């Protein structure tokens, strides 16, 4: 921990999820945020969070910088204890962007990102730094810039990567989130939690992104929709099982039932891919879908539906990138 009584945290990726955790962490740590597309708005006006959990109209003005070079220059004498990555999991980009703010042997890197198989590029880039892998449940959108709408859930599940690494940094960050008023769970092995969430991410994200529809709208579109979603989720379950993360059919059905239960409440969710497509941003197709497909095929798991979603979402992502 940095000198003084509060740890020093740099948040990279001040979107909906990142901003809520920035607000929480500011209660227990000295925080700075890297803002990119929303930098000028946040620098001038700060953020407003409208949360069904924490309250409405929460206004705060954090310390913000344009990039990690600027963040590092401001922290030259006292390095960051944590760099919390809440940006999209796009391969080959983020490690280079955060590198200026990472002090070898000291700064712990917290990956609050979706998908599976995302951690290795960070261990390759920062082989002397602790890597903390996190699974997040926090529905949030940012519209317009600087205004965050946060739904009914806030939970962070954390663990060390790899599982053989020291648990001390991940346990310490878990306690920091709790001290800030958040919900955090430490897991000896975080990978089963990643796969469990992937049941939602790798099914709903590409389907909603490709159809420009909320999850409940998909389920109400036709009688066949529920069975198709369940079949995709079962393929994800089979890939997880083949990679040592056992899940039951009952767990799959539970994940599907969460969306089904929101239909009479008219409480459909816009998954992150749908939000990105609507905003013309690149999507997390490799972390959420592609990695799972490759891991399944490497184990001989049949995943035709998921592979089709990957091909379609990959083509969409490339088209967005060309605009």
Instruction: Catalogue the unreliable spans.
Output: none
CATH top level assignment of the largest domain = Alpha Beta
As a percent range, the share of helical residues equals: 40-55%
Tell how many strands the DSSP assignment holds. 12
Q: Any idea of the CATH topology of the largest domain? A: Rossmann fold
Order of helices and strands: EHEHEEEHEHEHEEEEHEHHHHHHH
Instruction: Report the β-strand fraction as a percent range.
Output: 15-25%
What does the main sheet amount to? Answer: 8 strands, mixed
Major sheet strand order: 5-2-1-6-7-8-11-12
Mind telling me which CATH architecture of the largest domain this is? 3-Layer(aba) Sandwich
How widely separated are the two ends? 44 Å
Number of helices: 13
Mean of the pLDDT scores?
96
Spell out the CATH superfamily of the largest domain: NAD(P)-binding Rossmann-like Domain
- Identify the overall geometry: globular
SS-derived structural category: alpha/beta
As a whole number of angstroms, the C-alpha radius of gyration is 19 Å
Number of domains: 2
Protein name: 2-dehydropantoate 2-reductase
Domain Ketopantoate reductase N-terminal: 10-162
Function: Catalyzes the NADPH-dependent reduction of ketopantoate into pantoic acid.
GO biological process, one term: pantothenate biosynthetic process
